[in-house]
């Protein structure tokens, strides 16, 4: 790395914070920690980290609330830490704009792989094949500002996960993309059996694209999803 990536860990478990901080520091990251939302906001006020690891269960504002607050002003990658049996936590986190989730039975090596995948994706998504604007139907994506312009001219800033998913579709228009391909590209791993995360992300993107009838992002039985539109790249 040309410079250290900073990772913010927000968790009220001192044991977990210390263990992750030591492991990630040894792996070459600059690590800062917070025990709750109040401390998290103080850290964020000093500068945005490269990635945030955010526990769901926190004193005061929980991880869902904090994720929603972060997404109002930032596209920083967020990995949610959830309880092993609570699928609702994972779905809710993704709906609020988290980029990935991992259960608290994870190994440090698995977490490191997730972090590296999201950081690679974040760096790649700074631009899309050199094009500033990507046009499809009456929509336009500003790849530098990460702003989606509606047919009526309104602008919506996309979260990191939504931007990555739309960028993937725009790189492969009119081509079927399986859930595994989508997961490997935007998360750096295959989709797990019965995992709903990709479906949730597609549903959220459809809502932003006002695609109620699923004619723009089509569901292909036993194949996955496909963006059904011609794409034009503009400098």
Automatic annotation (TrEMBL):
Q: Which InterPro entries match?
A: CheY-like_superfamily, OmpR/PhoB-type_DNA-bd, Sig_transdc_resp-reg_C-effctor, Sig_transdc_resp-reg_receiver, WalR-like, WH-like_DNA-bd_sf
Q: Does the keyword DNA-binding apply?
A: yes
Per UniProt, what is one GO molecular function of this protein?
A: transcription cis-regulatory region binding
For this UniProt record, the keywords arranged alphabetically read as follows:
DNA-binding, Phosphoprotein, Transcription, Transcription regulation, Two-component regulatory system
- Indicate where the modification 4-aspartylphosphate is found in the sequence: 55
Q: What parts of the sequence cross the membrane? A: none
OmpR/PhoB-type domain spans which residues?
Answer: 131-229
**UniProt-listed PROSITE patterns:** OMPR_PHOB, RESPONSE_REGULATORY
Which organism is the protein's source? Grimontia sedimenti
Keyword Ribosomal protein among UniProt keywords: no
List the protein's name: Response regulator transcription factor
- Which Gene Ontology terms describe the biological processes this protein takes part in? regulation of DNA-templated transcription
Which SUPFAM superfamilies did the record assign? C-terminal effector domain of the bipartite response regulators, CheY-like
Domain called Response regulatory: residue spans: 6-119
Top-down, what is the taxonomic lineage of the species of origin? Answer: Bacteria, Pseudomonadati, Pseudomonadota, Gammaproteobacteria, Vibrionales
Q: What are the record's GO terms for cellular component?
A: cytosol; protein-DNA complex
Q: Which residues bind DNA?
A: 131-229
């Amino acid at each position: 790395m040309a410079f250290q990536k900073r990772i913010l860990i927000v968790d009220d478990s001192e044991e977990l914070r210390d263990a992750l901080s030591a492991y990630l520091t040894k792996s070459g990251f600059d690590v800062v920690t917070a025990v709750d939302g109040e401390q998290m906001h103080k850290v964020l006020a000093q500068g945005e980290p490269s990635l945030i690891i955010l526990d769901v269960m926190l004193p005061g504002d929980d991880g869902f609330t904090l994720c929603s607050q972060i997404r109002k002003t930032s596209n920083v990658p967020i990995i949610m830490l959830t309880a092993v049996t609570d699928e609702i936590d994972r779905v809710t986190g993704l709906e609020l704009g988290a980029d990935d989730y991992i259960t608290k039975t994870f190994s440090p090596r698995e977490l490191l792989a997730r972090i590296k995948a999201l950081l690679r994706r974040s760096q790649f998504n700074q631009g899309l094949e050199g094009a500033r604007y990507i046009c499809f139907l009456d929509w336009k994506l500003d790849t530098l500002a990460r702003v989606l312009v509606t047919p009526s001219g309104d602008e919506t800033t996309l979260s990191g996960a939504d931007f990555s998913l739309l960028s993937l579709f725009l790189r492969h228009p009119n081509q079927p993309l399986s859930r595994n391909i989508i997961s490997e590209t935007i998360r750096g791993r295959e989709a797990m059996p019965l995992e709903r995360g990709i479906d949730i992300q597609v549903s959220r993107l459809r809502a932003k694209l006002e695609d109620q009838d699923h004619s723009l992002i089509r569901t292909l039985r036993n194949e996955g999803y496909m963006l059904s539109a011609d794409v034009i790249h503009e400098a």
